[in-house]
Specification:
The chain is an all-alpha fold. It contains 4 helices and no strands. The protein is elongated and about 55 Å long. The termini are far apart.
């Protein structure tokens, strides 16, 4: 079962080619891609929070404002914990092999980029 989940995760995110050679080089590239995705996530998060603060966007449903920001913050913390746990499960199928770290990095990168897309939609009309 875990190997099927791993396969579905691997199909979802394809990392760019790595110019470095060897396992250590591949891991450096994967770590750099995750760091880049995390920076994009940070920007998307800031923009989403700002969109929810914008008084011009408030409507009769009160779907914006501090309560919405608090809810999104709680969701973000939960999402990050779930992402990390999910990617640990994905990497577990490769435990003890040279691919374990790469699977974990690629899983986190793919899920982070998906989350960026979701956050970019926050506050959109």
């Amino acid at each position: 079962m875990i190997s099927l989940l791993l396969l579905s995760e691997a199909v979802r995110y394809a990392p760019p080619p790595c110019p470095e050679k060897g396992q250590a080089g591949e891991e450096r590239c994967a770590a750099a891609e995750l760091a880049k995705a995390e920076r994009r996530l940070s920007v998307a998060w800031s923009k989403a929070a700002q969109a929810l603060r914008d008084p011009a966007r408030r409507n009769s449903t009160k779907a914006f404002g501090q309560t919405a920001i608090n809810l999104l913050t709680t969701e973000q913390k939960s999402w990050r914990a779930w992402r990390d746990a999910h990617c640990d499960v994905m990497a577990y199928s490769m435990q003890g092999t040279s691919g374990e770290a790469l699977v974990r990095y690629d899983c986190k990168t793919g899920m982070t980029l998906d989350r960026v897309k979701i956050l970019e939609g926050v506050g959109a009309s």
